[in-house]
Amino acid sequence: MYFSDARIATNIPTKVVGPIDIIYREKREKIHVPLATFETPLWYSTKRGALAAQKSGGINTVVTDDFMTRSIILEAANAESAIKCQEWIKSHRNLIAEIVSLSSRFAKLKGVSSENVGRLLYVRICVESGNASGHNMATKAADEIADFITKNYNGLKYVSISGNYCTDKKVSAVNGILGRGKRVTADITISADVCQAILKSTPSRICELNYKKNLIGSVLAGSIRSANAHYANVALAMYLATGQDAANIVEASQGITVADIVGENLYFSVTMPNIIVGTIGNGKHLDFACENLAMMRCLPEDPDSSKRLAAIIAATVLCSELSLMAAQTNRGELMHSHVALERNSKR
Questions:
Q1: Is 172 within the bounds of a domain?
Q2: Whole-model pTM?
């Protein structure tokens, strides 16, 4: 068995959508966004949401947290010993922070928590990783922390560098609650006139659908910390366009859409607790990724660029989420647009 040295390029149709009016760190900018997708209507739907945002003063974005996680499994002689080790870890937090800092010049300990199940101990480590998404950085730090704990706490043995309590590339309650990557909220207020003229709907109809579809429907389905229409579509399109680890779309699909009436206007927001992106690292060095990141002014030398990218992703998700929700208030519009746009794209 071998790997071929042949270089194979997998081409994904990509279009630039925008400009999207985004307010990030209190500065309003017009940003063109690349979307790599096989779903042709996604470009047009996102563009319609972007136009509504332009007419409404732009999309506010705020990044409230940023860290990568890794969880190690350790095993004690019994449950009592595992619980005592939890307390020992808490008392040595400063030493653990120092170990993390020495593992990489960019890494900083953000937090450490643990859970025991019988004699098993799951230690979840949160690491700030600069402009990198931080997978390898967190893993390296976790490796060294595991060595430190097992060498200095008697009777404890190593089980695994990843115990699924991270949680990496799987939907989980822990990520929805505590976050993994960048936690971002994007919101906007849209007048009834703009809703009617551009989105072909009304604030009340969009709010009602959000309640019945995204909230009740998601509860009925048993969704985990999620109540949205299709965050994964745009998040994946932007991950692919910027050289990200596309499997992290699993975490990015989590999030909650809120729609409220404010006066006669529509308040609309998306909250995404798990946007896992970087502007440096594997994949970001490829020519297409460099060009797309530069177009959005997410330059690796800017220490804020990975957070900026996450904010842009959340704002773009809002545009598409808003447009889709509006479309689904009108019977037949969703299917008609898919048929019309996808048939035209095949000619």
A1: no
A2: 0.93
In the set 29, 65, 75, 245, the catalytic residue is 245
| Residue 245 a catalytic site member | yes
For the chain, strand residue ranges (E) read: 14-24, 27-36, 59-75, 108-117, 120-128, 157-160, 181-190, 226-227, 255-262, 265-275
Catalytic residue (choose from 115, 230, 333, 338): 338
Per-residue pLDDT of 310-346, as tens digits, reads 999 999 999 999 999 999 998 865 666 656 666 665 5
65 in catalytic set: no
Nearest to 245 by CA among 273, 274, 276, 272: 276
To the query of whether residue 135 is one of the catalytic residues in this protein, the response is: no
Question: Pick the catalytic residue: 29, 39, 115, 144?
Answer: 39
What mean pLDDT comes out for the span 190-195?
97
Structural domain boundaries enclosing 154: 67-160
Asked if 326 contacts 195 with a C-beta cutoff of 8 angstroms, the reply is: yes
- What's the pLDDT tens digit per position in 26-66? 999 999 999 999 988 899 999 999 999 999 999 999 999 99
Residues 90, 51 share a domain:
no
Same domain, 151 and 285: no
